[in-house]
Amino acid sequence: MNCCDACGLTESQALAAAKTIGLHEEFNCGLYSCCQVSAWADEQCLAWFEAVEEDAQLAQQALNTIDDFGKEAALVPVHLRRSVPWYRRA
Q1: How confident is the model at residue 71 (pLDDT cuts 50, 70, 90)?
Q2: Is the pLDDT of residue 70 over 60?
Q3: Cβ contacts of residue 20 below 8 Å, gap of 6+?
Q4: How far is it, in rounded angstroms, from Cα 40 to Cα 56?
Q5: What pTM value is reported for the model?
Q6: CB-hemisphere CA count at 13 Å for 87?
Q7: Burial classification of residue 37, based on how many CB atoms lie within 10 Å of its CB (0-12 exposed, 13-18 middle, 19 or more buried)
Q8: How far are the Cα atoms of 30, 33, 42, 54, 58 from residue 51, in angstroms, in the given order?
């Protein structure tokens, strides 16, 4: 396996990273190096993990807020389904 001395990616890993960040054609043409693609893919991955963590924290805050206000029992009207007279067949 050919590994880059600088970034440590194999050719297939660099190609997969390029596909992941949408730079597959540019990487194949030689416009970007495997080291650049590796750095950008790592940056994109970190950004996604941070966004997921932030979303999880916001969801947990929303649940905590609901729990604080929703401790009292609430009655909710439920409408029962009634048969439709014109739909019944004799």
Answers
A1: low
A2: no
A3: 41, 44
A4: 24
A5: 0.60
A6: 3
A7: buried
A8: 31, 27, 14, 5, 11
Supply the angle between the helices 34-69 and 11-20 in degrees, to the nearest 10. Answer: 50
Report which DSSP code applies to 85.
T
Q: How many residues does the chain have?
A: 90
Residue pair 55/46 in contact (Cβ under 8 Å)? The answer is: no
**Tokens 């190609």 sit at which residue?**
15
Cβ atoms of 24 and 15 closer than 8 Å: yes
As a whole number of angstroms, the distance between CA 18 and CA 12 comes to 10
Integer Cα distance of 54 and 62 in angstroms:
12
From the list 14, 10, 43, the residue with the least C-alpha distance to 30 is 14
Q: What are the residues whose beta carbons fall under 8 Å from the beta carbon of 75, sequence distance 6 or more?
A: none
